[in-house]
Amino acid sequence: MINLAGRDIMHAWGKFIFTGVGLGLLIGVTLSMAGIYRGMVDDAKALLDNSGADLWVVQKDTIGPYAEPSSVYDDTWRSIRGIQGVIRTANVTYLTMQVHQGERDVRAMITGIMHSELGTPGWPPYLIAGRQITRSHYEAVVDITTGFKIGDRLQIRRNHYSVVGLTKRMVSSSGDPMVFIPLKDAQEAQFLKDNDAILQQRRRTSQNLAFKQPGVFEAVIASQNTNPYVNAILVQIESNHNAEEVAKTIRRWKRLTVHTRSQMEEILVGKLIATSAKQIGMFLVILSIVSSAIVAFIIYTLTLGKIREIAVLKLIGTRNRTIINLIMQQAIALGVIGFVVGKITATLVMAPIFPKYVLLEPLDSVWGFIAVIVICVLSSIFAIRTALKVDPAEAIGG
Question: Between the N and C ends of the chain, which has fewer C-beta atoms within 10 Å?
Answer without folding.
Answer: C
